[in-house]
Amino acid sequence: MNPSSIPALETPESLPFDLMRVPGLGHLFRWRYARPLLQAPLLILSVIMILHGLFGPALAPKNLATTLSWLHFRGVLVLVLLCAGNFFCLACPFMLVRQAARRFLKPRFNWPRALRNKWLSVGLFVLILFTYELFDLWSSPWWTAWLIVAYFLSVLVVDGFFKHASFCKFVCPIGQFNFVASTLSPFEVKVREQDVCTRCHTKDCIRGRREPVSDLVVIRGCELALFQPSKVGNMDCTFCLDCVHACPHDNVGILSRLPASELMTDPIRSGIGYFSRRKDLAALAIVFTFGALLNAFGMVSPVYAVETWLGKILHVNHEAPVLGLIFTFFLIVEPVLLLGLAAWTTRVWARSPLRLLPLAVRYTYGLVPLGFGMWLAHYCFHFLTGLYTLIPVTQNAIASLGRPFLGEPRWALTGLPANVVQVVEIGFLVLGFAGSLVVTYSLAEDDSPDRPLRAFLPWAAVCLILWFGSMWLMFQPMEMRATMMSG
Amino acid sequence: MGTSPARASGGGTGLPRLLDQRLLGGVFRQRLAMWMAGCACTATLLVTGCSRPTESLPVVEIEHAISPQPVRVGPATVTLKLADRAGKNITGAHIAIEADMSHPGMSPLFAETQETEPGRYEAHLEFQMAGDWVILLHVTLPGGKKLERQIDVRGVRPGVRSN
Q1: If you measure CA to CA, which chain A residue comes closest to B134?
Q2: Could you say which DSSP state residue A432 is in?
Q3: Residue of chain B with shortest Cα separation from A485
Q4: How many other β-carbons are positioned within 10 Å of the β-carbon of residue A290?
């Protein structure tokens, strides 16, 4: 039977809501050039940010590079992840440049087997967080511009040499952030009817659609090695829609689902395997969760007291070693202590047959909602309190070109009042806390059907400690210094 | 006896052959030259664009003080003393003050100075957040000449809590 003649089944009313069925939106996403269309504005914006970062005002509040990167991009990113899915990766401007470059540069190598995991990207994620604090990237348009340039160059180098989407899957720190956060998104790229896939012989969603005679790929399959029929959740999915375009049966949609549901189960996942056996993924989830608190800690007053105190004890004046110690505490010592203790208690109290490390790995994913709540609270604070600053900064940038057709900069425009935004922040933290409790309880029910409460309580205690820590951070006076250890 | 056709150049696979053909082709060389020229232009622009041009400005000494010390969130007074090269006070200048935080998303503060005694100017600001601030002085000298100066105010501390 010719696979293309398999009819897609009618969508019953019980099926989830499908974004691809929305008039207009579905047509757009099915269009082959939807991705470049969405990428092009972001590429133009990136070029403007680079140029303004390098040649515009040196003050961060007056520069488009810093304002757009550290306020608007981060805020919109987390809100889109919360309300929809990983649509930033869909519209990623770096990939547009990569695609253009691949017309001339054909990658010849496969990504090294030893690096086919998340360890490198976890390291880069930590490095980005570290350099953000060390070089105060938020206060430097020049460094922000070079960071964007470095990102473009990294994409070109990695994907210039290595086949498929090596950069997205194994390198990109923003991508890893999006992958983890999108486990909490309400939409997922997924097959509509498993039966259709069972009867499909061509598997175009992974192999790509090919010319019948020449066997040349005309529409690419998934570059991240996610085979749609056995794909579970959003991990590693860039929403690139290649599978949507490649599927000859129109059987792939963007379907609604319960956010975080993919964290509550542990099936084998295409391109990933079992979550519970992926220590690298668990490490990514730890950096995502504990890094959220660390990143916020870097913006409040107590951090400077801690840094000064550490500097005096260690007799060092340079920021790097002190910051290194703080990072070690937040990203290694604290997680090892909290997760280790919780895993040990679960093992003893709930008589779990699992050993300590597999137990810790398994429940680490339960902390992701808390981490995302903290990222949301932090980024939305900056985004919402500085929401309108884009207007005067743009006016100023245009005026500096000698044609102030948008008028004189209205510097009085800022954003929502901080006390209003604080309510939103608390809402995100409560939501994240509740999400983590639900996920860890589901895992506990699976692990210890006889004693779910005993397995759950140690992890609930970890969630509570982290939640209190997040709430405490949110009520600290903000102090945005580009210098530390000044006493 | 059969003969096999000679290869146009080098390798047996398609890719090196294609590369060779391109390398030998004038179009490719032209494109390469254009690309390199573009890179050179960009590099030149980056290097020259990142250094600010200097202009000859009248020599004006500006002394500044901010009180109270240490600077905290809340009201503060900026005092400026303007003198020429000979140390003579400059009177009748107009100084507009703009204070910005180091982080984007914060609106700048604006204030006008008042000359409290010859050559001494004062302005009142209210720092709204702890952290690093930058004060920009937009000075218009009596002759109409304009100049700008920047004062870094590092580590403004949180305000004293009343509760």
Answers
A1: A59
A2: H
A3: B155
A4: 25
| Block residue for tokens 């232009």 | B41
User: Is A99 in CB contact (< 8 Å) with chain B?
Assistant: no
Mean pLDDT (whole number) for A437-445: 97
**Digit-coded pLDDT (tens) for A306-363:** 988 999 999 988 889 999 999 999 999 999 999 999 999 999 999 988 899 999 999 9
Pick from A67, A66, A88: which is nearest to A76 by CA? Answer: A88
Check A106 against B15: CB less than 8 A apart.
yes
Q: How far is CA B92 from CA B88, B123, B129, in A?
A: 13, 15, 32
Pairwise CA distance, residues A299 & A473, whole Å: 9
- Are the Cβ atoms of A411 and B50 closer than 8 angstroms? no
How far CA B147 is from CA of A76, A314, A399, A430, B65, in Å, comes to 39, 44, 19, 51, 19
B26-49 helix and B14-24 helix, angle to the nearest 10 degrees: 80
| Distant-in-sequence, close-in-space partners of A77: CB < 8 Å, separation ≥ 6 | A88, A178, A379
Interface contact B134, partner A, CB < 8 A = yes
Contacts of B96 (CB under 8 A, 6+ apart): B110, B111, B112, B113, B137, B138
What's the CA angle centered on A393, arms A391 and A398, to 5 degrees? 95
Query: Given CB atoms, is A382 within the 8 Å cutoff of chain B?
Result: yes
* C-alpha gyration radius of chain B: 31
Place of tokens 């009042």: A417
Task: Work out whether the CA dihedral B27, B29, B34, B39 comes out positive or negative.
Answer: positive
Secondary structure element (H or E) that encloses residue A209, with its range: strand A209-210
State the Cα–Cα distance between residues B32 and A218, nearest whole angstrom.
29
Question: Across the A/B interface, how many CB contacts are shorter than 8 Å?
Answer: 96
Tens digit of pLDDT per residue, chain B (163 long)? 333 333 333 333 333 333 333 333 444 444 545 555 555 555 555 544 444 444 455 688 889 999 888 888 889 999 999 998 888 888 988 999 999 988 898 878 899 999 999 999 999 999 888 888 999 999 998 888 888 888 888 888 877 644 3
Please write down the long-range contacts of A111-114, taking CB distance under 8 Å and 24 or more positions apart.
Answer: A111/A162, A111/A163, A111/A164, A111/A166, A111/A169, A111/A170
Among B13, B107, B153, the strongest candidate for a mutation testing the A interface, having the largest count of A CBs within 10 A, is B107
Ramachandran region, residue B135 (left: φ > 0; alpha: ψ -120 to 50; beta: rest): beta
pLDDT for A3 equals 44
Contact B130 A477 (CB under 8 A): yes
Express each pLDDT in A234-272 by its tens digit: 999 999 999 999 999 999 999 999 999 999 999 999 999
Q: Which pLDDT value is given to residue B2?
A: 38
CA A170, CA A117: separation in Å to the nearest integer? 6
Report the C-alpha gap between B140 and A218 in whole angstroms.
Answer: 66
| Closest by Cβ to B103, choosing from A55, A412, A480 | A480
d(CA B115, CA B95): 9
- Strand-pairing partners, residue B115, are B121
Cβ-defined contact of B105 to A386 (cutoff 8 Å): yes
CB of A101 within 8 Å of a chain B CB? The answer is no
pLDDT given at position B60: 85
The answer to whether A103 faces chain B, any CB pair under 8 Å, is no
Q: Which two tokens stand for residue A450?
A: 């006889």
CA distance A159 to A153: 10
Residue A102 above 50 pLDDT? Answer: yes
Residues of chain B neighbouring A66 (CB-CB closer than 8 A): 104
